[in-house]
Amino acid sequence: MRHVLPASVETCHWGYFDAEAPPALTIASGDVVEVETLSGGPEVLPPEGFQVPAALRDIHARSARPLPGHILTGPIAVEGAAPGDALEVRLRDIRLGQDWGWNFSRPLVGALPERFTETHLLHLPLDAQTGVARLPWGDALPLAPFFGVIGTAPPPGWGRVTSLVPRAFGGNLDLKELVAGATLWLPVFTPGGLLSLGDGHAAQGDGEVNVTAIETALTGEIEVILHKGAALPGPRAETPTHLIEIGLDPSLDQAAKKALSSLIDRVSDLTGLAAEDAYALCSMSADLRVTQVVNGEKGVHAMLHRDRLAFAA
User: Fold this and answer.
1) pLDDT, tens digit, for every residue of 169-202?
2) How far is CA 187 from the centre of its chain?
3) What pTM does this model have?
């Protein structure tokens, strides 16, 4: 079955994940959902001449903002999902929802908080036809839209948590590989899973170093598949070409170790290789990439091309 979930005051929650949040939509495993997302508070609205979604202005006017964070659409409950299961979220399509994006930096945050001490805001025209963002110094940056935040609800005992910090439930991963065609796997910690999406990015560099990418509204088409008993310790991803394991930790070194260790285990599980041989394969062929360095829990993702596993097919 196919569903449409527009962004509105009724279907969005601002700044948090919460196991007690009521679902905006309930679906069956295998259903497809067209999800509309919005991004940014009143302080980043553009000057005249750009299209500002009416729903964004309404959310600004009427939605509660209990924690600093992102405007998220959802939650989406999946029938039969229970703690110990996993959700497979296939990103079938992602497209722009407006003709502008923004990049914002402010004092005391980002990768270089001691260097940049003034607030800086850019508004960038986005051209869906040519697939570029126009930068004020004359460059045209290719677009590669993805959702910076995709997550299930946290364990009930955690209470309401900010959307700013990625955790075992996913959330603010800022993994730029999650473009259309990619898949994200997420653990289920509460009945229904309660999947939410937001933080649309038109383009981002690895690291997201000044805290924002090209933030914008996006509409995505996702297919959600429930896997019973497929307990996961945290999020993992796939693209048509690569396996991706995600490490999260306040220390970038520890995040790298977690991502690499998870990739070694996954290679061993898929191929039967001894851990030592999987370790060697990763050293010869896998890539460790910095996902983001600005979300409290830093991210590293370990990527291995699927061709390296062809011998086990």
Assistant:
1) 999 999 999 999 999 999 999 999 999 999 999 9
2) 14
3) 0.97
Chain segment 83-113, per-residue pLDDT in tens: 999 999 999 999 999 999 999 999 999 999 9
pLDDT tens sequence across 286-297: 999 999 999 999
